[in-house]
């Protein structure tokens, strides 16, 4: 398969599948206060639930290694549908074990989807990788903006145990995807070039780049993970209602969608590393302003925080897939593994630290740690194959 120009229809279809998937996978964070009350768990226990959902992401490297053998079209169609069904049943779960199984299943679908979809986006974007990744990330971030409102309003109508009704739109959307996404040999773009698939060789060749990438993402992960997972819980501890917490999370994700959409194209023009540096400098400043502000100013600052925290995603995705590897699925699997691993550790650390010293102080610490991302940009540039 070859492609020489930006294919908007196919980029749009895959981005729509991303939107569908991430609407339902974003249900856990806004209902965490209810889950904590329902099962009587601590913040650390709540962070473990997030860990369970993200644990299958560590399979990303395996998925990337065998990507050329997987049915990519069916992954793009079925992963959002299965995630939709499981996400809709979270409120029905009557014990932690059932809840864990549902979350783990969502994680498996997420890992499969997020390894294959960006590679397809990169292919159909041709020379405009930043633009393509922006559309792809817009689907995900817009979903995480809408998801909290969907689940909270569903709870207000049907109570927590009645959210199973939300599975039917996911099934209907899956049927639409079936007729939208063409039955092509997408697997062939998992390996571009004459060399056979060799996952160990790919990781070894780009190990220094991945180490530098891990450092950059790790320093920023505590801010992203703590807000994405515990923002509604944090707002509740500050005296806000469950709806206010969901609205705050939606504001954050709305800004994330805007930042992700525009930053990919901007990085095509001003460069990947200059974009990453600007975002690294702005993030800790805005985070410190957020934790020391009142509710009204916090909601405004969330608009800016969403942009600077999440606008790195399309830039990093484009950077990873532009390193020159003939095995882009494996490269994306490496990025996906690092992304989920750093975010998962950040959420777990936030939960444990939040129980000990409080979420307010934990968020302050996350801002100071994020300063380390600034020198990490220069290290990442040094280890990258593009400048």
Following the backbone from N to C, one meets helices and strands in this order, namely HHHHHHHHHHHHHHHHH
Q: What is the CATH topology descriptor?
A: Growth Hormone, Chain: A
List unreliable stretches of 5+ residues: 192-196
Number of helices: 17
CATH superfamily: MFS general substrate transporter like domains
Strand count: 0
Can you identify the CATH class?
Mainly Alpha
Roughly what percent helix? over 70%
What Rg do the Cα atoms give?
20 Å
Number of domains: 1
The separation of the N and C termini measures 28 Å
CATH architecture: Up-down Bundle
Protein structure class: mainly alpha
The global form is globular
Percent strand: under 5%
Largest beta-sheet details: none
The averaged pLDDT comes out at 82
Walk me through this protein's architecture.
The chain has 17 helices and no strands. By secondary structure, the protein is an all-alpha fold. The longest helix has 31 residues, at 207-237. The protein is globular and about 50 Å long. The two termini are 28 Å apart. Residues 192-196 have low confidence and may be disordered.
